[in-house]
Amino acid sequence: MSSIRPPLEAPDVVGPPYTSTSWPVGAALLQFPGVRPDGGDLTTGPPDLWEPTLREVVATGFSEIDLTDSWLRPGDLSPAGLDALAGALARHSLTVSAISVTRRSVVAPDPDRAAANLAYALRTVEAAACLGVRVVCLGLHEPLTAQQEARQWFWHAPGHADPDDAEVRALAVSRFREIGRQAAAVGVEISLEMYEDTYLGTADSAVRLVHEIGLENVGLNPDVGNIVRLHREVEPWDEILAATLPWTNYWHVKNYLRDHDPATGAWFTAPAPLELGFVDYRRAVAMALDAGFAGPICVEHYGGDGLSVSARNRDYLRRILAVKLGE
Prior knowledge:
alpha/beta; 10 helices; disordered N terminus; single chain; 8-stranded parallel beta sheet; TIM Barrel; two-stranded antiparallel sheet; globular
């Protein structure tokens, strides 16, 4: 089979390899700080400082985690550090459903930082292979701006936008292809996360980017939560999923309340559990299964006790999967 997908031709639909209880649903670790109590970097600190977070995750019933690098950076661990991490995970009977690289664009405006982000992504792929992790999730989103950090919810202020520049887009394609080829050589898949105002910001642009990269182990993470939370008109979530699910190999799921007052032009969004928000995940899961999605899922939630809400989201997904899979 060729490694280049023909344009706009969806892959064949394959049945799911999991049951509702075995489907890997990992806890996002974005709510846990990546700093030590003394203010130092958690990644470079003693491994025993990782234990409290892992205990919290297990206590809420998770057996899988999304190793979110805002908490711990596998790509910056030494071989001894990776061994220590593997041991810690084994002690807690945890597996890693994916590693998510956050806010490290390979086409960042600063060329030196973009090159460093590329090198970091390649190291993360190698770390994933060492840990036996199947998926590394990458994106083109940038660190939060000062204006975003000052808001109660960062998405209430505009952030970085990729330029309308064919050369920069071509560089993104080239660098993701380089990462994808290295990942394929060690048995790892790359998933590209949808995020507003980047080359992964709309369904059409995201699907075309995957086609331009042209590797079978590079797919999409259609995180529609990143889109519906914006205070503006957005692409309908079901249209995003209809277009992207045939190329989806990993899926961050989260939900938001969303409202718009035409009289004043005001928008409102706030985080919500999966079953209570704007996106109908019962329908979304059915769409995913119909499209042949068979990858791991990561449950996320911003604000409050995000881990407990993520556990609620996990249980909700498993109930839906049981029905949709006819169990």
